[in-house]
Amino acid sequence: MAFILNNVLENKRLTCVLEALENSIEPDVEDILHKEWLDFTEDRFIGDVFEPKRTHTQKHEQIILPDINDTLSDTAEGYVNMLINQYASCLNNLEKGNGSLLCVRSSYGCGTLPYFFGCEPFIMPREQNILPSSLPLGGDAIEKLVSNGVPALSGGMGEQAFKAGELMLEIAQRYPKIGSHVHVIHPDTQGPFDIAELLWGTDIFCDLYDRPGLAHSLLKIICETYTVFMHRWLEMFPCKEYTYHWGYIHKGAVMLRDDSAMNLSPELFDEFIKPYDSLILDTFGGGAVHFCGRGDHYIDSLCTIKGLSAINMSQPEYNDMEKIYKATVDRGIKIIGLNPQTAKEAGARLKGQVSM
């Protein structure tokens, strides 16, 4: 790792980006923005919809971002490209003047945990320029996987997440303003049921009926693995009270993804998702849940989970938003990163509990 660290952090392309970011960060501007986010998170914001913006913007030379596929290899060049993509996005935020706090992450796609179980990455076509997924092991492999227990968190692209994290730690030490104002968020660890689908494949939706006991056994192993992974991650990047996922602030250490939940009935959600999300949130002092697609059919149940501080939803147009608001803002649960048009249409209905 020492060889990679030196070869990465002395790379001229990367140091150019890091020096530009270090010189562009204005601590007073970032401190004001951070305080505004804390006021929103702690219910001190007065207004309908929280729409933060920086008080000053910074121009910089255009940076050509590497293709995503060039950020994935376990080589010095791969880490250089991944770090450039991450830290250059912070420069873009400063230039746009938007209200997103500065964040970076070890970015290897939704397969971060499935890789440890033996899933192979599925690299997307270069022209799509998006992160990889993972190839499922299939339902016939699940019994053996469960009997093997928690896998070693080593090898492959999963381990690269920790290596990239070590590089980000070193960057924070070398560049004081980056260290103070750029937040390293945890990798894409999905949520327990999303991981189960990635491991099992789409047959899981029938096997929940045909093999429910095996599904529960798998979800227990996934939660144990998730816990080991996050404890190791939080040793590097402790969470005192708040997480800065995607430039938002929410209470608790984790951001769970429940994208697969839209395919389940409320009853199946209560059986196969809620108890395992609850376990993770309880273990790590709470957190937030993201979901794509429709979630209004299970949102009421989701929002009774202890420690849930916020939700992030990407497609409000697929939901009965009044059901969403009753389950969330009426209970003091934040909605972070809501579509601006949806937020503005709801206006005062949102009671200062929603950010764009």
Would you mind describing this structure in some detail?
- With 356 residues, the chain is α/β, with parallel strands linked by helices.
- The chain contains 16 helices and twelve strands.
- The protein is globular.
- The two termini are 40 Å apart.
Which fold does the CATH topology refer to?
TIM Barrel
How many strands, which pairing sense, and closed or not: the largest β-sheet?
A: 4 strands, parallel
Secondary-structure element string: HHHEHEHEEHHHEHHHEEEHHEHEHEHE
Give the number of DSSP strands: 12
CATH architecture call: Alpha-Beta Barrel
User: Strand order within the widest sheet?
Assistant: 8-9-10-11
Number of helices: 16
CATH class: Alpha Beta
Question: Could you estimate the helical fraction of the residues in percent?
Answer: 40-55%
Distance between the termini: 40 Å
Q: Over all CA atoms, what is the radius of gyration?
A: 20 Å
Estimate nothing, just give the exact number of structural domains. Answer: 1
Q: Unreliable segments (pLDDT under 50, ≥5 consecutive)?
A: none
Strand fraction equals 5-15%
**Integer average pLDDT:** 95
Overall 3D form: globular
Which oligomerization state do the chains in this entry correspond to? single chain
Structural class: alpha/beta
